[in-house]
Amino acid sequence: MRSRPRQTLDPDLLLRAYALGWFPMGTGRRGRIEWFSPDPRGIIPLDTFHAPSRLRRVVRQSRFEVRFDTAYEAVMRACADREETWITEDILQSYLALFRLGHGHSVETWQDGQLVGGLYGVSLGGAFFGESMFHTATDASKVALVALVERLRARGFVLLDTQWVTPHLAQFGGTEIRRAEYLARLEAALPLSCVFGDA
Asked: Are β-strands 65-68 and 41-43 bridged in parallel, bridged antiparallel, or unpaired?
C-alpha cells in the first residue's frame, strides 16, 4: 500500500493565513488539511482575563514550574494524544517549522521534572493565536494559561485568539465576537513589534 505524500504547509503560507484570520486543521481519517475562519470568533480579552480564586491560590503555591519554549514538540504531541485530533503529523511538522522561525511557542507546566501540562500557539505582531492545551495533572493547563496571559500583557500583546469559546475558556473571560470585529482587532495588532520568546 503506497504511503500518502506529506501535506506540510509552507511557513510563509501559514503566517499569511493567520494575518488574514484563517487557520488550518487536519480533518478526516486521511488527515486532509482544511482552513477555517469562524464567525463568531473566540478570544480572551487580555484586560478582562479572569482566573478563579482557587486557581490563583494554586499559582501562588508554585505547585508547578512554568517554562517557555523548552518542549514545544512534546507539548504538541501531548495535545494530539487523544482519540480524535486535528493535530495530524502534517500539522505537527508544519508548526515545528514555525517554531524554528520563532513564531511557534509553548507554555509548559512541569512537576518533579515531568511535563504535566501546557499549551502552544503562534505569535505574529501583537497577536497570539492559541492552538491547543493539555494536562495530565489537575490545574496544569490552567496554570499555563495564566502564565501565557501574564507574558502577553507584560510584552505588549493586544489580542489572544482562541478560535472558538468552550465552557472551559468561558470561565476565564473567553468571549465571542463577530468576524468583522475580530479582523479589525487583528489588523490593529499585526503592526506591533511584540516579542514572545526570550532571545
From this structure: unpaired
In 3D space, the residue among 54, 83, 43, 61 whose CA is nearest the CA of residue 175 turns out to be 43
Cis amide linkage into residue 40, ω under 30° from 0: yes
Residue 37: strand, helix, or coil: coil
How far apart CA 195 and CA 199 sit, in angstroms, is 9
Q: Does residue 73 lie in a domain region?
A: yes
For residue 168, the domain's CATH number is 3.40.630.70
DSSP letter at 112?
T
Q: Are 80 and 92 in contact (CB under 8 A)?
A: yes
CA–CA dist 66, 53 (Å, integer): 19
Distance CA 6, CA 9 (A): 9
pLDDT value at position 8? Answer: 85
Residue type, 13: L
The tally of domains found in the chain comes to 1
Specify the pTM.
0.94
Domain that includes residue 65, residue range? 11-189
pLDDT block averages, 10 residues each, the chain of length 199: 64 97 84 91 96 93 96 98 90 96 98 97 98 97 98 98 94 96 98 90
